[in-house]
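The instructor's notes for this session suggest beginning with a concrete chain rather than abstract definitions. Hand out the sequence below and ask the class to guess, before any prediction is shown, which regions might be ordered.
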Amino acid sequence: MNITILTYGSRGDVQPFLPLSLGLMTRGHSVKLAAPSRFKSLVEEHGIQFIPLAGEPEDLSRRLNDSGHNFIKMVREMMDHAIEIGADVLHQTEAACQDADLIIHTFSHAVGAHTLACEKNIPDIHIQTFPMFTPTGDYPNVTMPDLKFRSLNRLTHTISKQITWWTSLFGFEQVRRRAGLPKRKLYFPFADDPLRPPTPILCAWSPSVLPPSSDWTGNIHVTGYYFFDVDRSYHPPDELRSFLDAGDPPICISFGSMVNRNAERIDEIVRSALAKTNNRGIVLSGWSGLRNQLNNNLLYLDVVPHDWLLPSCKMIVHHGGAGTTSAGLRAGIPNVVVPFTADQPFWGRRVHAVGAGPKPIRVKNLSVGNLAQAIAEAERDVTRKRAQTIGQRIRSEEGVKRAVDLIESHVSDWRNFKV
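After discussion, reveal the predicted structure:
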């Protein structure tokens, strides 16, 4: 079976699809992975065919960060970004799916990919790293606080789905008009269609972190996270090895791909909180570009594989992105979440709900005092032991196998449905 996977965003939006691709390839399937061009080497070094997509995810990160926690603003920023690069991405995704027997898509591609699948009369599957198209009364849309009433929580999901559909209609029309392309009928993957079985939604997170909701429909499945085995081939730089050997386990500071205009202020708060709590730190600076003077208690690095580094750390302070949250929980260490935007506050609340870390601190409210207090809470035995338990559960799950089984089962059902 020829499978095309369409994703977009930061490394955390791309990396889960590497082990999934390899799992599918092990079953004999041919896989193409389409993602922003900056991830070409990351994908190809694993032997996966890569299709580059236009646009800079760093620009999208900056836009989302500026939108704060306002869902309408987030959708508008994503739409504006999509319109700017849309003509190129349309051509690239259509080419990537030309010989596909199955299209797997994420949030950014949901409408376009499903439309392609409908036109080609092939199955499609949606994979999400945060709950977006899965209405429930258990919790609201990920950008909103709990509204206490199940009916109101569920309403926020209905509204967000409708907003996504409306903005997709508008955005696609703008892209096609600017490119001189004719109008095109679009199809929403989560609307009732008597001519197609429901599009499966695979939730790529651990049921130990967010269990399935009792009011979900039957096409929604929680598979577990998609991880590689620990990278034994990674060779740390000498400065990292020396730093780890020089003292107590450090705290990992990892704000991923978030681009924040107040990066220097945040960095100063982190440094002061580490000093106040007598902790050492490793700062994975990513796109922030921060490079402060080194000392015996602080080390700045660009990128280190989380699965290699985190078992040597006492805890992780991070932005709450789905990828970093999964890595921190898998390592079995406490997580202190400082969310910036999008789904990050939601995952911060889940970390606290399962006992693996303190309440999240929104980045706009971050101070030396509340970060130091959160670190102290994360150092408590009860938090540490709970994080270890969650980590053990996650490491025992087989998310890739579960996802591949569901993918193959749906394609089999699809063929029977067509007959």
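Then share the key points. The radius of gyration is 21 Å. Residues 150-178 form the longest helix (29 residues).
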